Amino acid sequence: MYMETVQDICDRNAHLEVRCVPCTRSVDIPPSLIPGRIPRDLPIQLAAAHFVCSGCGGRQLVSALWDYRTAKGRGR
């Protein structure tokens, strides 16, 4: 089973969607704003562990790939 990585987001110019589970705040991060400290070979499902919710300060986040060209989210 292939898991899409942060590098796939950069290659496809898609956005990383990070959503807070407790407060349901959602942010779409374009490839140019993904921090360099996040390994490019990291699966997108694990990328949320590198973020903190700016709304409630929670760390229980989930991430997905959001491709605006096809308007479909994946990896939830």
**What share of the residues does DSSP label as strand, in percent?**
25-35%
Strand order, main sheet: write it out: 2-1-3-4
Mean pLDDT: 84
Structural class: alpha+beta
The rounded distance between the terminal residues' Cα atoms is: 15 Å
What is the C-alpha radius of gyration, as a whole number of Å? 12 Å
Attribute tags:
alpha+beta; 4-stranded antiparallel β-sheet; 14% helix; globular; 76 residues; 2 helices; 4 strands
Describe this structure in words.
- It is a single chain.
- The protein has a four-stranded antiparallel sheet with strand order 2-1-3-4.
- A hairpin with a 4-residue loop joins strand 3 and strand 4.
- By secondary structure, the protein is an alpha+beta fold.
- The protein has helices at 6-12, 44-47; strands at 15-20, 26-29, 61-67, 72-74.
- The protein is globular.
- It has one domain (6-74).
- The mean pLDDT is 84.
